[in-house]
Amino acid sequence: MQIEIKMDEAQTEPKVIILTNKVTEEITELVKRLSEEKPQLIAGFQNNTVVLLKQPELIRIYTADSKVFAVTDCGEYQLRFRLYELEKRLDEKYFVRISNSEIINLKKVKKFDLSFTGTICVSLSNNAITYVSRRYVSKIKQALGI
After folding, report:
1. Beta partners for residue 52, in sequence order
2. What's the farthest any 2 CA atoms get from each other in the chain?
3. Going along the chain, which residue ranges are E strands?
4. Number of domains forming the structure of the chain
5. Domain presence at residue 51
6. Which end of the chain is flanked by fewer CB atoms within 10 Å, N or C?
7. CA 133/CA 146 separation, integer angstroms
């Protein structure tokens, strides 16, 4: 695939043109990925304050006491989304569900410890330790290519 970028001062928003002799699966996937624009910001609540959280800042998102929390290097924030809603909003290249109650950012993982039988221990960038539930082990291995 060839990629060409042309700068035009008159162009107010990006425009993508695909030139091809036939529509292949690769072209269909490319169009799908370009048209799926997911919100990059998530509102987090902390001490009666709303903080806009950027996806790359998120380390993990988990549920506790029927509430959803997001953890960043700057602190912990309560979210007003359900976990399944966040799973749809987050970039699937970097965020993966590891249990019924947790989603992690793969870019914030220090290491995966596979020595535990039936599960995987995950060390995160904020020194937190969490575990992949048995149900999600195959999904994690597939995402990591192992």
Report:
1. 43
2. 59
3. 41-46, 49-54, 60-64, 67-72, 75-79, 95-99, 102-105, 109-113, 120-124, 129-132
4. 1
5. yes
6. N
7. 17
What is the DSSP secondary structure assignment for residue 111, as one 8-state letter? Answer: E
Higher-scoring residue by pLDDT: 136, 116: 136
The answer to whether residue 12 is domain-embedded is no
Whether 15 is covered by a domain: the verdict is: no
Averaged pLDDT, 14-23: 84
Task: With respect to residue 29, please indicate whether it lies within any of the assigned structural domains.
Answer: no
pLDDT at residue 16 tops 90: no
Report which of 118, 123, 117, 85 is spatially closest to residue 104, judged by C-alpha positions. 123
With tokens 């990925």, the residue in question is 33
Q: CATH number of the domain that 123 lies in?
A: 2.40.50.1020
Confidence grade of residue 39 (pLDDT, cut at 50, 70, 90): low
Beta 109-113 vs 75-79: how paired, if at all? unpaired
Q: Which residue has the higher pLDDT, 116 or 121?
A: 121
Its domain, for residue 54, covers 41-144
Q: What Cα–Cα distance (Å) separates residue 140 from each residue in 4, 27, 51, 128?
A: 34, 27, 30, 18
pLDDT at 37 over 70: no
CB atoms within 10 A of CB 102: 20
